Amino acid sequence: MNHTYNPYDNVLKVVSEAANILGYTDSDIEALKYPERELKVAIPVRMDDGSTKVFEGYRIQHSTSRGPAKGGIRFHPDVNLDEVKALAAWMTFKCAVVNIPYGGGKGGVVCDPNKLTEDEIRAITRRFTAAIAPLIGPEQDIPAPDVGTNAAVMGWMMDTYSMLKGHCVHGVVTGKPIELGGALGRSEATGRGVMFTTKNVLKKLDIDPKNTTVAIQGMGNVGSITAKLLHREGMEVVAVSDVSGGIYKESGLNIPDILDYLSQNRKNLLTGYEEDGMTRISNAELLELDVKVLIPAALENQINDSNAERVRADIIVEAANGPIASEADDILAEKGILVVPDILANAGGVVVSYFEWVQNIQSVSWTEETVNEKLKNIMDPAFEAVWDIAHKNKGTLRTGAYLIAVKRVVEAKKARAIWP
Ligand SMILES: NC(=O)C1=CN([C@@H]2O[C@H](COP(=O)(O)OP(=O)(O)OC[C@H]3O[C@@H](n4cnc5c(N)ncnc54)[C@H](O)[C@@H]3O)[C@@H](O)[C@H]2O)C=CC1
Ligand SMILES: O=C(O)CCC(=O)C(=O)O
């Protein structure tokens, strides 16, 4: 692992590169280097054993130039200020690349949900929501699920915020339970977007999905739905992993069986799963498999200067945020590995969050078919636009995505005359 990794520096580097190509001056992008608001909170919680524990939490709004801040809440032991700043900034550019009217935000609590009871998670959620309540709201900043959080957590957030306001506020969070105004299709949306993106890139390269081997790191919301949908499209998912390690089968894993197992044994992870012909591998080994498509769907900094040389996939679709450290980008490009960047590949989640918010504001509800169709109608043109601009500039798809996104954000700032 590279010890100097700072995800926020990674974001600034790629933003500066894109701004240079676009001909923007340092002043044009100076404000983008600073999150608009950073809130750090202490969350005292009575634990099940009667003790009191204080957890640390953050909500950061990187930009609200194009609309309210938007982005998930992460519950994970490694949450820290630089990580949340980076995740918030990625949201700004993600919302811009798919052109939805949001800025970027992100939040997190330093805790390990795998070691907490449901009561403890709910208590953390309620106290955290109360602590960040001055910052959030349907017109200001709209949280959603991320690593370690889910629809239930969003339901508790919505309830806590609504209690403070004295009335039901559906639009304060997205990714809620359907009963509370959650959008049909939101729980699958990020994985569905990754599936559309993977199919789009295979089509560009004239590769038949049926002859495509795939390895997926992370079997949470994003990884598991991606596995399900790519398997359904006829791709051969040969390896999957989670925090407990991975499994590999050359002829393709039985994905429906694995998903079934995980839905009943979520906390046991993949460790207890068995299938004829499979072998156990580490997460590090999964990343170095000789597959057509590698899909990191867990955390940041999984591919860096310590392992990029050994990556053998032809294509990497970044389902996680920031899985490739910037120094590894250059190594992968030299090796001829095509990388589809996170801000494009995993944007399906926030796009359907946007649909959820639109439905909440209008008090209407769309069918799942409508949601999925509208999602495709945003993801496919966004992919085409990134592909075209990257090829015109003879650059990577990451640079292409940032050329589009940075321009939209800077032009919005200029139009608002945010600086003189
Ligand atoms: N949930 C969403 O809608 C969106 C999530 N993302 C990103 O996708 C990634 C995954 O998020 P979710 O699936 O929502 O989280 P999740 O909490 O549902 O799942 C995370 C998965 O990663 C695994 N994992 C955790 N630490 C690991 C490690 N050190 N090595 C290997 N695997 C590890 C976990 O065991 C689990 O399978 C994150 O980068 C997140 O920011 C991006 C866009 C939207
Ligand atoms: O659905 C959302 O609002 C944001 C999801 C998210 O956190 C992400 O795209 O990284």
TrEMBL record:
Q: What is this protein called?
A: Glutamate dehydrogenase
Tell me its family: Belongs to the Glu/Leu/Phe/Val dehydrogenases family.
- Per its UniProt record, what SMART domains does this chain match? ELFV_dehydrog (SM00839)
Q: Which InterPro entries match?
A: Aminoacid_DH-like_N_sf, Glu/Leu/Phe/Val/Trp_DH, Glu/Leu/Phe/Val/Trp_DH_C, Glu/Leu/Phe/Val/Trp_DH_dimer, Glu/Leu/Phe/Val_DH_AS, Glu_DH, NAD(P)-bd_dom_sf, NAD_bind_Glu_DH
The molecular function terms in GO held by this entry are: glutamate dehydrogenase (NAD+) activity; nucleotide binding
Instruction: List ligand-binding residues for substrate.
Output: K70, K94, S353
GO BP terms: namely: L-glutamate catabolic process
Q: Which organism is it from?
A: Extibacter muris
List of catalytic residues: K106 (proton donor)
Give all residue intervals belonging to the Glutamate/phenylalanine/leucine/valine/L-tryptophan dehydrogenase C-terminal domain.
183-417
According to UniProt, where does the site described as Important for catalysis lie? D146
Binding of NAD(+), residues: T190, N221
Taxonomy, top ranks, is: Bacteria, Bacillati, Bacillota, Clostridia, Lachnospirales
**Which Pfam family is one of those matched by this entry?**
ELFV_dehydrog_N
Organism superkingdom: Bacteria
